[in-house]
Amino acid sequence: MRSVVLQIRGMHCDGCANSVKALLEREPGVKSAAVAFESGAARVLFDPLKIEEKRLLEVVEQLGYTAVARRPA
Amino acid sequence: MLDLERAPGRTVGAMNTLTQANDAIHPWAEEPSSRPNRRKIRAHIGGLHCSLCIGTIEKALGRIQGVDKVAVSLTHEQALVEFDPQLVQPESLVQTLRDIGYTLYDPRKLRSFEDEERELVREGHRFVIAVGASLAAIALILNPIGIWGEMLPALVFASLVAMVYLVLRPSGILAALAGAGGLAAVAVFLFYLRQTARMDAATAWITAGLAVFLVFGVGRHIVYMAVQALRRGILNQHVLLEVGAFAGLVGGSIGLALRPAGYPTAPFFAVSVMIATYHIFSEWLSLIVKTRSSQAVKRLLNLQPDLARVVRGDREVEIDIGEVKVGDLVRIRPGERVPVDGTVESGHSGVDQSLVTGEPVPVEKREGDVIVGGSMNGTGTLLVRVSAVGEESFLQRVVRQVEDARALKPGILHLVDRVLRVYTPVVLLISALAFAGWMLGPYLATGHAELGRAVFAALSVLVMGYPCAVGISAPLSIVRGAGEAADLGILMRTGEAFQTYRLVNQIVLDKTGTLTEGKPTVREIEALTLTENELLALASAAESSSEHPLGDAIVQAAFARHVVPPEVQSFEAIPGKGVIARSEGREILVGGPHFLRERGIGMGTLDARVAALEEEGRTVIAVAREGEALGLIALGDALRPDAADAVAALRRAGVAPILVTGDNLRAARRIAGRIGIEDVHAQVLPGAKADIVRSLQKGGKVAMVGDGINDAPALMQADVGIAMGSGTDIALESADIILLRSQLTLLLRACEISSRSYRKMVQNVALAFCFNGIGIPLAATGLIYPVWAMVAMAVSVTAIFINSLWGNPSLFINAISSVGCVPDGAGAGTSVR
């Protein structure tokens, strides 16, 4: 299990945050995701054997947002 | 409209799948009868115009020899008949219905949003034409003398022009301006012609033409409905309208034929035009209200057809649920809804049955276990051998119970119909008395009967008798109430929601998913040597790869606390018991307390704690590392935060709460105790919930609150069914009220809105009848002119508009201007009648 925080730019409202969360959680290997619209941070718990971090970024970018990964503090 | 063809295959959403058997030749569906030697049929009836029809159908069918039971539902337009096939055949029952003017339609026909919208637009245009005729008629009879003679017609004129503008507004501002302006211009031109040129004779003829055009042309469907109602022996709104309209026509015709001096020929015709216009308007408004509320529910439903992934040879094919056969192997992937009943052939997974049985804790299913359609699969993949399909399947049995409950639901006589049942005969009687009085009175006094005056008085009473505003009194108060409810996240769907909720004295509450959140969450953590978070980290590391039913709840709890589970090197799940994992070189055991004991791990002081937590209804998971017990994690279904407040508030409002659940008695009692409910029914089978509601109904009106598949029959049976917005499709479809936000305190708010709307409705009906009530005795004297009927009409309609929409006119304007616009996201949906 690994947890990562993605910094997402381009979300306009809670609706965006909800769809990012739903899309992330639909990926096999993602156990849970929490997305905050105010801070633009998405915390994702995933199984590194089933899904790569790169793929998480791709999912967010598919929606038209930009994302970078930063390690949880 | 792709869904159109596939929709009948849906299981839970569509109520009409029952009739998909090959009964295409018959317009009814067979139902299993409750008694031997009896047959039961369900027929969908078209042409129900008012709540008085229920009684008529029940009487007409009940009279037939061999018929035992008849139940009719107005909202859902269907009848359930139980009869002795030795004595009577369904064909003759259906013929009886046809004889009294009802049609039987195929319940499988679906209507799309677009069709419904087109119908609304069509009815709207009918109204615009009627208003045009009314404006012209007003211009033709207008006699502007004195301040009242100018003010009133001007007011009516302006409001009608404004209405035309509103109705046409969705087709564009130019069209609306042109339409409203054009009609107004024609009327003003007619008025100008009358003022300048001499066209007295023509005036009467033109008004006559307008009246005939409106009554027999634009409003011919109303004549038809009135005739049908008369054949059924019902005196409803349509009959009352036509009585008034025909009285106007007859009165006017007498004027045309005999030309008595000073006789109001044109006004008689004009009254016919006006009352027909208002009636068309109220019909249209009712249709808008009805269509909008059913569309709102449809938008909540998951209209996807149900498919099953069937293993054929070495391939998996997705087929419609209706084509699955007994013995087929169906693959169910993680997170999917189980589409069929069957037994697990291979695989194991935690299955959430809370919507089917009411148990909140998922059950682990392995080879040989029975699985019920409608439950939610957890994280494992299952291969299921189908054991029942179609009529025999669990979901279809529930659908059938809903259908039964639907017909057995206590019907309500709508307020307006209740008043009309007395009012209409009284109007006819007074009219007859006025005639008789003017014939007899003068005859006794002078020896000459006053035929002319008698006819005039009788006709004036009839013309005055139609309370135009009555048709809009109910829909307008519903527009107001439903609008207020929508702001709070409450969807008020049927007449029952407005008329009956305020009378409810018992409320049946489902436990799982209604009073509680409906899914297990981590409630307590008991750590011996580690911190709570460290314990949670270990447990979630082991559980994250397992398919254990409660594993996900533990992982979610860890995630919520920002705990990152350590890496797991190896992992073994022991189905039904627990998980053994290796992490950081050490062996971790997570599972039920028994699992640890079996492995020879002493629980020590934790034993007492396990017993205490289990006593409280928690499911306990123990964690051990390298043979040493580290602690416990307790999971349970949390009560909704506002459950206790909501129940207390309901009790204060005089509603007795009753808990009904499919879960065990201990769990039910514990929840009930915490929120203060004494009356508890536990381990109730899905069908039995409706029976409980039915028996409670002997003691008064009953509301039922639920969300699951197993709640649906009871929601339908209850006088008022209330579904949580997160509930299953079948629960939403069976409910009268839907709480879009899962807040139980809304139960009371909905009740307040319902009483307030009902009060408005009563006020409106009173206003509607009041002005005509004053007018009728005056008309009976034969001294007042028909133009006063128009005045009464205008005043009562205005009064009702003000009373219903005071402070919030936008609700009405929005309702009117929404016609013709297919709402977002609704285009793909289809409706099921």
List keywords for this structure.
heterodimer, A: 73 residues, alpha+beta, Alpha-Beta Plaits, 4-stranded antiparallel sheet, 2 helices, 32% helix, B: alpha+beta, 7-stranded mixed sheet, elongated, disordered C terminus
Structure report:
The complex is a heterodimer of chains A (73) and B (833). In chain A, 32% of the residues lie in helices and 36% in strands. Chain A has a single domain, classed as Alpha-Beta Plaits. The two termini of chain A are 17 Å apart. Chain A has helices spanning 14-26, 53-62, and strands spanning 2-9, 30-36, 41-46, 66-70. Chain A is globular, with a radius of gyration of 11 Å. Mean pLDDT of chain B is 84; it is low at 1-24 and 823-833. Chains A and B meet through strand 2 of A and helix 19 of B.
Low-confidence stretches of chain B: 1-24, 823-833
Radius of gyration of chain B: 33 Å
The H/E string of chain A reads: EHEEHE
Count of folded domains of chain A: 1
Class from helix and strand fractions of chain B: alpha+beta
Strand content of chain A: 35-45%
The greatest inter-chain interface is formed by: A-B, 10 and 15 residues
- The shape of chain B is elongated
Write down the overall mean pLDDT of chain A.
Answer: 86
Largest sheet of chain A: 4 strands, antiparallel
In summary, what is this structure?
Chain A has a single domain (2-70), classed as Alpha-Beta Plaits, CATH 3.30.70.100. Chain A is 32% helix and 36% strand. Chain A has two helices and four strands.
Any chance you could write out the topology, listing elements then pairs?
The complex is a heterodimer of chains A (73) and B (833).
Chain A: E1 2-9, H1 14-26, E2 30-36, E3 41-46, H2 53-62, E4 66-70
Chain B: H1 3-6, E1 28-31, E2 39-46, H2 52-62, E3 67-73, E4 78-83, H3 90-99, E5 103-104, E6 110-112, H4 113-141, H5 146-168, H6 173-196, H7 200-218, H8 220-231, H9 237-258, H10 265-300, E7 307-312, E8 315-320, E9 329-332, E10 341-346, E11 349-352, H11 354-357, E12 363-365, E13 370-371, E14 376-377, E15 382-388, H12 394-408, H13 415-446, H14 451-465, H15 470-488, E16 490-492, H16 495-499, E17 504-510, H17 511-515, E18 516-527, H18 532-543, H19 551-560, E19 570-574, E20 578-583, E21 586-591, H20 593-598, H21 606-615, E22 619-625, E23 628-639, H22 643-652, E24 656-660, H23 665-675, E25 679-681, H24 686-696, E26 701-706, H25 712-717, E27 720-724, H26 729-734, E28 737-739, H27 746-780, H28 787-805, H29 810-817, E29 830-832
Parallel strand pairs in B: 17-24, 17-26, 24-25, 26-27, 27-28
Antiparallel strand pairs in B: 1-2, 2-4, 2-5, 3-4, 6-29, 7-8, 7-9, 9-15, 10-13, 10-15, 11-12, 11-14, 16-28, 18-23, 19-20, 20-21, 21-22, 22-23
